[in-house]
Amino acid sequence: MTEMKTAFNASCLNCGLQKICFPTGLDKDEMDRLDAIVQRKAPLQKNQALFSAGDKFSSLYAIRAGVVKVFSFSDSGEEIIHGFYLPGDVVGIDALSSKKHLFNATALDVTSICTLPFEELSELSTKIPHLSSQVLSIMSKEVVEGRLHSELLTKKNADQRIAQFIWSMADRYRSRGYHYLEFRLSILHRDVATYLGLTPETVSRILAKLHNDKIVTWKKKEVSIHNEAALRGLAGLAESDLISCYKVV
Amino acid sequence: MTEMKTAFNASCLNCGLQKICFPTGLDKDEMDRLDAIVQRKAPLQKNQALFSAGDKFSSLYAIRAGVVKVFSFSDSGEEIIHGFYLPGDVVGIDALSSKKHLFNATALDVTSICTLPFEELSELSTKIPHLSSQVLSIMSKEVVEGRLHSELLTKKNADQRIAQFIWSMADRYRSRGYHYLEFRLSILHRDVATYLGLTPETVSRILAKLHNDKIVTWKKKEVSIHNEAALRGLAGLAESDLISCYKVV
DNA sequence: CGTTACGTTGAAAGGGTTCAATCCCTGTGG
DNA sequence: CCACAGGGATTGAACCCTTTCAACGTAACG
Q1: Contact residues, chain A, for B82 at CB < 8 Å
Q2: A7-16, A37-46, A96-105, B90-99: range with lowest mean pLDDT
Q3: CATH topology of domain A2-152
Q4: What is the pTM assigned to this prediction?
Q5: Could you say which of A54, A78, A140 has the minimum Cβ distance to residue B246?
Q6: Per-residue pLDDT tens digits for B217-226
Q7: In Å, what is the separation between the CA of B151 and the C1' of D12?
Q8: Closest residue of chain B to A94, computed from CA coordinates
Q9: Does the structural domain A157-235 have CATH classification 3.40.30.10?
């Protein structure tokens, strides 16, 4: 029990996700003060909700380990998945204006969370200017993410969507310093389909193709990328980086 | 010349968009201080850029009159349209984290802009707390907007997309106190198609159908909604309001 | 009055969905 | 330890919505 407590009680200062997560750019002292307001509770179990649509907004949540999906329901009751959040990501920031959550967030696996009570965070922000710009920065990244997702939905066919999805997951793991050519991904194929605006059948067929072509294998919860270049090529991404905003004439 | 200057130099205090735009919720004194940093220049002409991808981020822009489209280009050079912004809307907020614009914004018609230099706005925010929450609020609405757009792209067919688009435009005009069953819309059908992830041909065909069915007519730049209920029905929207996050069992 | 860009209309083609059957894993209980 | 249930994944075949391609119409502007 003791070691478990230690496990989810480590401070930001000791956290391997410092460079990715909220405290980026804070000095030691500032990080200590941030640490003081961060709440770390027992991990969420699989399928446990972090928050639900309609809940009062009170905190932001930084993911320490695991995966969280953010979703809502269409008027006809279909699930709409807006994103998957990995260690170092922050969820809940979309509720700022409405003061209550408009979306649902649930753990797809055992997931550790750092809770940042927003009241206290705001107050601390007035003393640590960099912290408030950090909130803005996280949110504006969320906007950009959403637009990349729209690009995927409007401009890419099923093969490209899946290739880009897998590649972007790998890339996110890479930027966190994890293995990125082989990793465990606790996301149902069905959820991927929903996220990408496809059917599970289509995802299944394309994954079979990617496996045959020895580009990517995703069996059970294990992803292996065998041909990184081919995957990037399929995804239809530019050579240099993820987003290209300049017109290619 | 004098009257023209007056036209685009009216203060927030006199602006009809107070309730919609940035100053919402500020008292008279606060609004005056905001006013002091707002810059109002000559209107943009049609197709003139407000900013372009790659530009240094320095200001937010509130639209006083006209329409602005925000867009980028895919790796293959296709235009991706992320949104259309109407009077009272704020654009440029997505550039906060990267300190430079990742998207393009151009006027689709003669468009008046209020420029809010971000440095000064931040500084003022430290003195007017409500102002900083205003920035957060605008940005989180942007996130929610993006997700509604994703919902449209993943869950709706062409008819529903177009119905929802027209409906949402009408709704936005309505909330601004403008005529909403008949209005001028300076957006090319082609741009609508791009925004909705469709082809111009499909948009054309569906608009013809809507016209035949006496639901909506959109000829030249004039939109007339003849059957509001039918339009909402086609859009597949819930009875009450635009966004439904609770599962319909 | 011609040029150019936007819009319309038709016919054909295709990518993804839909529907249905089957398989496979995991967890559960006898 | 095995049987069984149930949710997820797979596979095939038919279908359909949207795209594609091509031709034509039309409005705006010099």
Answers
A1: 147, 150
A2: A7-16
A3: Jelly Rolls (2.60.120)
A4: 0.91
A5: A54
A6: 999 999 999 9
A7: 30
A8: B140
A9: no
